[in-house]
Amino acid sequence: MITPQDQYLMMQVQTASPGELTLMLYNGCIRFLKLALAGIEAKDAANKHLNIIKAQNILEELQSTLNMNYEISANLFSLYDFIRSQLIHANLHMDAESIRTCIGLMTELRDTWAQAVKQVKSGQATS
Fold first, then answer.
1. Domains and CATH numbers, the chain
2. Which of 42, 103, 106, 113 is such that its CA lies 20 to 30 A from the CA of 26?
């Protein structure tokens, strides 16, 4: 059964621009990282693991959508790889600091991306 919240989320995804979809991925990854951190702090290995895997899946999606014709894409790919390696370490060693590092990096990327999406939207509105 599809809940009203699920319907709302599906509508958001279906009507979002590619930039907004990427922003949703960043937000989802950050949310799962915070849940993984809570799992580590609560010594809940199953919750930690589940949410790290979800964050890793989002990172894989972000990597797969990069247009490698641009230099920045190679840099982002490497950064996503670094974050994924930190998540593997955190998952194996219940390392909260690695998760905090990942949250910081993903938050910075998300904030930069949100600003870019905002600028594109305002540029389209004035064109």
1. 19-122 (1.20.120.340)
2. 42
The H or E element spanning position 90 is helix 71-93
CA distance linking residue 83 with residue 91, whole number of Å: 12
| Residues whose CB falls within 8 Å of the CB of residue 62, separated by 6 or more in sequence, listed in order | 22, 25, 26, 29, 76, 80
Amino acid at 55: A
- Answering whether pTM is above 0.70, one says yes
Rg (CA), the chain: 16
Mean pLDDT by 10 residues, the chain (127 residues): 79 83 97 98 98 98 96 97 98 98 98 95 71
